[in-house]
Amino acid sequence: MKSRPLTLIQDDLVGYDQAMDRMTDLVGQRQRDERRDTLWLLSHPMVFTVGRRTPLEHLPDPARGVPVVETGRGGQLTYHGPGQLVGYLIVKLGEDEGIVDYVREVELRLVEALGKLGLPAERRDTPPGHELLTGVWTSETSRKIASIGMRQSRGVTSHGFALNVDGDLEPWHWAVACGMPDVDMTSVKRELAAATMTEVREIVATAFEASS
């Protein structure tokens, strides 16, 4: 995995629509070479986001009162909420790189970060004919701990990853996450019992070579 230093931006809780507006602006800046490759770490209030191929039957019951937003990233339904670390990656890829190549890199960097926390994790290859297994799983309990959905436009990536740290996992049961009805979503807190958002942010930033 080649070195890829990133500029780090950090925020706490940012509304999803507001974040999308800012991400679009950051992508435009990177396309015009007005900024360096960037990692933006933040969290969102409760929201379900869906890809363009998400079936209606995978959506949560509207009675839950959680907004559902269609997004331009790849992948299926995912959940965002407090206690989850979201990382938006605005990176100009090389001519020999595609978005799938970069997603693999993101998986491996998250695996590295979780390993430094003392939580063995792994990426998975997708068997032919199955729903994409993009993301990161715990090695010992086989639970999914990080979701990834990205896109590329004019050579620059957008969207990124969502790593469950210490938030409420119950909303994951209100819909079909990642197109996989049987997936067991987990968090750093569920697996390790002791890890703070501050600690996880620092380790993730280091794994992505990101500094302010």
Description:
The structure is a single chain. This protein is of the alpha/beta class and 212 residues long. The protein is built from 4 helices and 11 strands, in the order βαβββββαββββααβ. The chain has helices spanning 16-31, 99-116, 188-192, 197-207; strands at residues 6-13, 38-43, 47-50, 68-70, 78-80, 84-90, 121-122, 136-138, 144-153, 156-164, 210-211. The chain has an 8-stranded mixed β-sheet, with helices on both faces. A 3-stranded mixed β-sheet has the order 4-3-5, with no helix packed on it. Strand 8 and strand 9 form a beta hairpin. Helix 2 crosses helix 4.
Low-confidence stretches: none
How are the strands of the biggest sheet laid out side by side? 7-8-9-10-6-2-1-11
Helix content: 10-25%
DSSP, total strands: 11
